[in-house]
C-alpha cells in the first residue's frame, strides 16, 4: 500500500459521509457541524464551544513533537496522556522488529517456493537481513499505521519522529478543526513524508481498508470514552500478525457503576468489586475478541494496563477459524457473592484431550454448571452474575520483557518523559501471576472482616509459607493475586484477628464480618517472614504505582486545567467540588479517589 491510499481516501471521502450524530449535518460542500460545537459521537454527547480547551501560550512540546497553539486551540489535547503515548511508542518500537521479521519470513517462504518450482535450482534461498531501523525514515517494508482518532496529531507525529521502521501513518479525525490542526502540525514538524492527514469517520477509513483492500499493520483507537463501536472496523482492518491498540476511558461503566450500560456497550456485565480495574481490562479484551471472532480472527494480548483514569490494551490480531473455536475457553462468567465478595469463575468452555493415542488432539466441550452452590460457603449470602470476561493471560511476558529491555536502556530517559513510571509499572506487570485472573485487595478483605489491615509482607508471607503462589497486580497498590483458595485467605485473616480482635460493633449478629469470623480456622497459618514476600520491583524501589500527577488531572477537560488561566482553573475548582458531591451519591467504586492517600499510608 502506498501513500496514494490515504491521499485518495482523503480526497475521495473527505467530509462526504452522512454522519450518525444528530449534531452533524451532511451538505454538498462537505461536513458541517452545528454552530460552535464539535461532536463527540463516541458517547453521543456533544462538546460545546465553551468546554473546548484552548492550549497554553506558545507551543506544546511532548517527546520530539511540537504542537502549534493557534491551530490546535479548539482540538482535544490531554497532557496527562503522555504516559499512554510514551507506552504506545515503546510498544510500537518493539513491535517494529516483529513486523520486519514477519515480512522477512514471508519473503523467504516465497523465495523457497519459487526456487523449488524452478528446474535448475542453483542457489539456496536465504533471508534478507533486516535493515537498521531508525525513526523519521520511511521504509518500503515498514509499518503502515492508522491513528483513527488523531485530534491534534500529536500522537502520530510522535510515532513518526520516535518509532523506527514505519512506512506511513494515516492520522484521521472527523472534526474539521482537528484536521486543520493536524495538517498544520504535520507541516510544522516536517513529517509530511511519513504522516498524512485524513478527514473521515474512523469506521469508514477502516472499512475501506479491509480485504480485498490492503490492511493496516497497526490501528490505534484512542477515543473519548468507549471504543466499542469502532471495533468492528478495527478488527477487520488490521493485517494478520498486526497490532491493535485500544484506549477506554469510560471507567465508571467498566468498573461496575452501570452494569446494564456495560452490557450494551461491551457485551458483558461489569461488577462493582475490589478488582474492578482488571475486570475492566478483561471485559474490554473479551469484547475485542468477540468482534474479531466474527471474521475468523482472534487476539493475543501483548500488554494490558490500567493507568490513571483509563485502560489501554495492545493486542496482536491473527486469522484462524480453528483457533476461534477455542475462544469460549478463554471466557468466563463471574459469580460474585453479595456479602463477602468472593469471586468464582465459570469458564464458558472446556478444552479436553479426546484421544489417548494422540493427547494433542483437543476438543472444546461445554462445562458442567454451576460452579457454585446456591449460597456462599463463607457468609451464606447469594450471588450476582457478571461477565463474560477474558480469563486467559492479559500480557505476553516475553513481549513485556523486551519492553523492559528498551525502557531500562541508557538512553531511555531521553526517549520517554515517563520512563521511570513505565519501568515501574512494567516491573510489576512482569511479576504478575499470568494464570490467575483478578486480584484481592488486602484493605477490602480486612474491612469485610471488620479487622485492622495487617502489613502486606506479613500477609504475603502467610500465603507463601503455605506453599501457594502470590504476586501483586499493576492495577492497584495493596492488590494481590494468588492461587490460594478463598477459604485459606479468610483463614489468614481469621488468624490475624486472634491477635488483633475485631471491634464488638462489627461482630453484631447477621453482619458479614460476624459470619466470616464465626467459622473455625481449618488451616495452619504461619506469619513468619518469607524470603520471597518482598517482590523484586519493591525492593529495588521502582516507581510502581502512580500518585495523581497534577491538580485537576483526569480525562478530557479536567486534565487541561494546568494549561489555562486562573479564572478557568477557579471555575473548574468550583465545579470539581460539585462533582465530588455528585460522585459521593453516584459512585460506589470507592477506592479510586483516595488511592494516592492510601498509597502513602500503606506499606506497599
Ligand atoms: C480523545 S481524542 C484523541 C486524542 C489523540 N489520540 C491524542 O493522543 O492526543 C478523540 C478524537 O476523536 C475524534 N472523533 C470522534 N469521533 C470520531 C469518528 N467517528 N471518526 C473520527 N474521529 C472521531 C474527535 O474529534 C477527537 O479529536
Ligand atoms: Zn460470601
From TrEMBL:
This protein's UniProt keywords: Methyltransferase, RNA-binding, S-adenosyl-L-methionine, Transferase, tRNA processing, tRNA-binding
Any one GO molecular function term: tRNA (guanine(26)-N2)-dimethyltransferase activity
InterPro entries for the chain: SAM-dependent_MTases_sf (IPR029063), Trm1 (IPR002905), tRNA_met_Trm1_C (IPR042296)
A GO-annotated cellular component: nucleus
Superkingdom of this protein's organism: Eukaryota
Catalytic activity: guanosine(26) in tRNA + 2 S-adenosyl-L-methionine = N(2)-dimethylguanosine(26) in tRNA + 2 S-adenosyl-L-homocysteine + 2 H(+)
Xref: PROSITE patterns: SAM_MT_TRM1
A Pfam family per the record: TRM
Region (Disordered): 102-135, 564-604
A single BP term in Gene Ontology: tRNA N2-guanine methylation
Segments of skewed composition (Basic residues): 574-587
Enzyme class, spelled out: transferase
EC number(s) on file: 2.1.1.216
Positions with biased composition (Basic and acidic residues): 595-604
Family: Belongs to the class I-like SAM-binding methyltransferase superfamily. Trm1 family.
Protein name: tRNA (guanine(26)-N(2))-dimethyltransferase
Organism per entry: Thrips palmi
Amino acid at each position: 500500500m502506498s501513500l496514494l491510499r490515504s491521499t485518495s481516501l482523503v480526497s475521495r471521502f473527505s467530509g462526504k459521509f452522512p454522519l450518525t450524530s444528530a449534531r452533524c449535518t451532511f451538505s454538498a460542500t462537505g461536513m458541517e457541524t452545528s454552530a460552535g460545537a464539535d461532536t463527540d459521537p463516541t458517547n453521543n454527547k456533544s462538546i460545546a464551544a465553551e468546554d473546548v480547551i484552548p492550549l497554553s501560550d506558545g507551543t506544546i512540546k511532548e517527546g520530539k513533537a511540537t504542537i502549534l497553539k493557534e491551530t490546535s486551540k479548539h482540538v482535544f489535547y490531554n497532557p496527562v496522556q503522555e504516559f499512554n503515548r510514551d507506552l504506545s511508542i515503546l510498544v510500537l518500537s518493539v513491535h517494529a522488529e516483529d513486523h520486519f521479521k514477519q515480512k522477512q519470513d514471508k519473503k523467504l517462504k516465497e523465495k523457497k517456493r519459487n526456487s523449488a518450482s524452478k528446474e535448475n535450482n542453483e542457489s539456496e534461498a536465504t533471508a534478507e537481513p533486516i535493515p537498521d531501523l531508525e525513526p523519521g525514515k520511511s521504509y518500503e517494508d515498514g509499518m503502515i499505521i492508522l491513528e483513527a482518532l488523531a485530534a491534534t496529531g500529536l500522537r502520530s507525529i510522535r510515532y513518526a519522529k520516535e518509532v523506527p521502521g514505519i512506512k506511513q501513518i494515516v492520522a484521521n479525525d472527523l472534526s474539521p478543526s482537528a484536521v486543520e490542526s493536524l495538517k498544520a502540525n504535520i507541516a510544522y514538524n516536517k513529517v509530511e513524508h511519513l504522516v498524512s492527514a485524513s478527514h473521515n469517520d474512523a469506521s469508514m477509513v477502516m472499512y475501506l481498508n479491509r480485504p480485498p483492500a490492503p490492511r493496516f499493520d497497526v490501528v490505534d483507537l484512542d477515543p473519548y470514552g468507549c471504543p466499542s463501536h469502532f471495533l468492528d472496523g478495527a478488527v477487520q482492518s488490521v493485517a494478520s500478525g498486526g497490532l491493535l491498540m485500544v484506549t477506554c476511558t469510560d471507567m465508571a461503566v467498566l468498573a461496575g457503576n452501570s452494569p446494564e450500560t456495560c452490557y450494551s456497550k461491551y457485551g458483558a456485565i461489569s461488577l462493582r468489586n475490589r478488582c474492578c480495574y482488571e475486570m475492566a481490562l478483561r471485559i474490554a479484551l473479551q469484547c475485542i475478541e468477540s468482534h474479531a471472532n466474527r471474521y475468523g480472527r482472534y487476539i493475543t494480548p501483548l500488554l494490558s494496563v490500567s493507568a490513571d483514569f483509563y485502560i489501554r490494551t495492545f493486542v496482536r490480531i491473527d486469522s484462524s477459524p480453528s483457533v476461534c473455536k477455542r475462544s469460549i475457553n478463554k471466557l468466563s462468567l463471574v459469580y460474585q457473592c453479595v456479602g463477602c465478595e468472593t469471586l468464582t469463575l465459570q469458564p464458558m468452555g472446556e478444552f479436553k484431550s479426546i484421544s489417548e493415542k494422540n493427547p494433542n488432539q483437543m476438543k472444546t466441550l461445554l462445562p458442567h454448571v454451576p460452579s457454585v452452590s446456591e449460597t456462599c460457603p463463607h457468609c451464606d449470602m447469594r450471588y450476582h452474575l457478571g461477565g463474560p470476561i477474558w480469563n486467559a493471560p492479559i500480557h505476553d511476558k516475553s513481549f513485556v520483557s523486551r519492553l523492559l529491555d528498551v525502557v531500562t536502556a541508557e538512553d531511555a530517559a531521553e526517549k520517554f518523559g515517563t520512563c521511570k513510571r513505565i519501568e515501574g509499572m512494567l516491573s510489576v506487570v512482569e511479576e504478575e501471576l499470568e494464570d490467575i485472573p483478578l486480584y484481592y485487595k488486602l484493605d477490602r478483605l480486612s474491612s469485610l472482616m471488620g479487622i485492622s489491615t495487617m502489613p502486606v509482607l506479613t500477609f504475603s508471607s502467610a500465603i507463601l509459607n503455605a506453599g501457594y503462589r502470590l504476586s501483586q497486580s499493576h492495577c492497584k497498590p495493596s492488590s494481590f493475586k494468588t492461587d490460594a483458595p478463598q477459604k485459606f485467605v479468610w483463614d489468614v485473616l481469621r488468624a490475624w484477628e486472634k491477635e488483633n480482635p475485631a471491634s464488638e460493633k462489627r461482630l453484631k449478629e447477621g453482619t458479614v464480618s460476624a459470619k466470616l469470623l464465626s467459622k473455625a480456622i481449618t488451616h495452619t497459618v504461619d506469619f513468619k517472614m518469607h524470603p520471597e514476600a518482598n517482590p523484586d520491583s519493591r525492593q529495588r524501589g521502582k516507581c510502581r504505582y502512580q500518585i495523581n500527577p497534577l491538580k485537576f488531572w483526569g480525562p478530557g477537560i479536567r486534565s487541561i486545567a494546568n494549561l489555562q488561566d486562573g479564572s478557568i482553573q477557579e471555575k473548574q475548582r468550583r465545579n470539581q467540588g460539585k462533582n465530588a458531591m455528585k460522585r459521593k451519591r453516584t459512585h460506589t467504586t470507592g477506592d479510586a479517589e483516595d488511592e494516592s492517600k492510601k498509597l502513602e499510608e500503606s506499606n506497599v
